[in-house]
Amino acid sequence: MDSSATALIIISLLTCAAMTAAAIIKPRIRVGRFSLSTYWIITLAGALIILVSGLINPAYLIEGLTSDSAVNPVKILILFFAMSFLSLFLDEISFFRYLAELTVRKAGVSQIKLFIALFAVISILTVFTSNDIIILTFTPFICYFAKYTRINPVPYLLAEFAAANTWSMALIIGNPTNIYLASMYQVGFLEYASVMILPALVTAAAAFLIIFLLFRKTLGEPLKAPDMEEHRTRISDKPALVIGLIHLGVCTALLVISSFIGVDMWLISLAAALSLVIFILVLSCIRKKGPAALASAAKRVPWEFIPFILSMFTIVLALSGAGITESLAHLLSAGDPVFTYGIASFLSANLINNIPMSVLFAFILEGVSQAALMPALYASVLGSNLCAVFTPVGALAGLMWMGILKKTEVSFSYLSFVKYGVLIALPALAAGLFILWCIV
Questions:
Q1: Count of domains in the chain?
Q2: Is the pLDDT of residue 251 over 80?
Q3: Which of 34, 123, 275, 296 is the most buried if burial means most Cβ atoms within 10 Å?
C-alpha cells in the first residue's frame, strides 16, 4: 500500500471518528443566528482535505457526480428529499399527531392495547412515509402522554423506535439508506419489496415480542383514563390534508409500477412534490392566505444531508479510486454474503453511522461477484436499518430521539439504550438475516 492510500485511510478514519464523537458530545454549534449540525461540517472538512491534498482527481469526482450512472448520488438525494417533503407536509397539518391521539383514545384504559396499537400504527406509517419523520412526531407525544397519565414511557418509546427502524426496511422509501443502496444498483420498487417485506415482518415481530416480554408486568397495570379533550389535535385544513394524502398515495402507487412504465423513481417523486407545491399554492391563492404548512415543511427538510452525502461520496470515491473498497470487498468475501454483509453493515453503522456506512458499502459491493451481489446488498440494507436499535450512533434518528427525551425530561441514558439494544437488536438481526438467507 503506497503512502497516498495510507494517508487517505487515515483521513477517512479520523473524519468518521470525529463525526461520531461530535454527534454525541457536540451535535450542534451556533454560528451567529444559525444553529448548525456538526456531523456534516466535519465530513465536509474531511472531503475538502482529501480534495486539496490531491488524493482524488477533481475531474474524477466531477464525473462521479454528473455521470448518468448507478453511482450518481444527485438523483438519490432528489428521491429522498421529495419523499421527505410529502411526509413533512402531512406532519405540518398535524395528520400524524392526530392519528397518535386517535390510537390512544381507542386503547382506553388497557396499556397492553395501547402498546399493540401504537406499535401497529407506527409500523404502518413508517412503511409508507419515513422512519425519521415518524420518530420525530411520535416521540414528543409519547413523552407528554406518559407524563400526563403517570405511566412508564420506556416500553412505548422502545416499541416506537423498534417499529420505525424495522418496518423502515420493508419498502425502498422507508429509509435514506434503502434509497441509496437500492438505487445505486437499480433495484426496482417491487423487486425490492418482494425480498424485504418478510425480513421486515420477522425483525419487527422479534423486536415487539422481546419488548413486550421485558415489560409485561408494567404493561399489565391499568392505565389512568386520559381526558384528552383539552389538548385534542384537530385538523383544521382538511382540503390540504386530502391533497397531501392523494399526492403521497399516487406517488407511492407510481413508484410501485415505475419499472413497468419506464420512469425513474426520482422523477416520479420530484413530480409529486412539485405538483403538491402547485396545488397548495393555488389553494392558498383562492383563500388569499399564505401557504404556512408548505413553507414550514420546506424548512424542515433535512437540507444538511446534501453536503453530508456529497462529502461522504467524495471520501468513498477517493477510497474506491485507490482500490481500498475493492480490498474490503475481498476481505468480506469469506463466508455467506447474507451473514457477512449483514453483520458487517450492522456493526460498521454503529461505528460511523448508517448513512456513511451505506455510501461506503455501495462502493464495496462493486467488488462482489454477480452471484453474491443481491444477497450482500439486501443484507447491507437490513443492517443499515436495524443498526439504529443497537446504539444511538447507528442512525441520526437515534441521536435526535435521545435529544427529544432529554428535552422532555425523560431519564434514559446512552448506557440504557445500549443495554436494551443488545437484548432487542441482536436477536432481531439474527432472525432477519436467517429469513433473508432463506429468501435469497
A1: 1
A2: yes
A3: 123
What lies within 8 Å, CB to CB, of 257 at 6+ separation is: 189, 190
Do 392 and 402 touch, CB atoms closer than 8 A? yes
Q: What is the DSSP letter of 219?
A: H
In angstroms, the CA 44 to CA 40 distance is: 6
Q: What is the pLDDT of residue 345?
A: 96
Residue 228 φ/ψ, nearest 5 degrees: -100, 5
Strand partners, 35: 30
In degrees and rounded to multiples of 5, residue 37 shows phi and psi of -75, 140
Residue 364: strand, helix, or coil: helix
CB within 8 Å of 307: residues ≥ 6 apart: 40, 43, 44
Total Cβ atoms within 10 A of residue 221: 12
Look up the domain containing 298 and give its range. 3-439
Q: What DSSP letter does each residue of 138-162 carry, written as one string?
A: HHHHHHHHHHHHT---HHHHHHHHH
Nearest to 376 by CA among 363, 389, 392: 363
C-alpha cell read off for 166: 424495522
* Residue at grid coordinates 450492522: 346
What residues are paired with 28 via a beta bridge? Answer: 37
Distance, C-alpha 79 to centroid of its chain: 13
Query: Rounded to whole angstroms, how far apart are CA atoms 264 and 267?
Result: 5
Q: If pLDDT is split at 50, 70 and 90, which confidence band does 151 have? A: confident
Cα separation, 359 vs 315, in Å, equals: 9
**What share of the chain in percent tops pLDDT 70?**
97
Cα first-last separation, the chain: 36
Instruction: Assess contact for 14 and 53: CB atoms under 8 A.
Output: no
Q: Long-range pairs for 264-269 at CB < 8 Å and ≥24 separation?
A: 264/75, 265/79, 265/172, 265/183, 265/189, 266/75, 266/76, 266/78, 266/79, 266/82, 266/183, 269/78, 269/79, 269/82, 269/83, 269/86
In the chain, DSSP finds a helix count (H) and a strand count (E) of 22, 2
In the block, cell 441520526 appears at: 396
| Residues 367-394: tens digit of each pLDDT | 899 999 999 999 999 999 999 999 988 8
29 - beta bridge partners? 36
Residue 212's pLDDT band (cuts 50, 70, 90): very high
CA of residue 362 relative to chain centroid, distance: 16
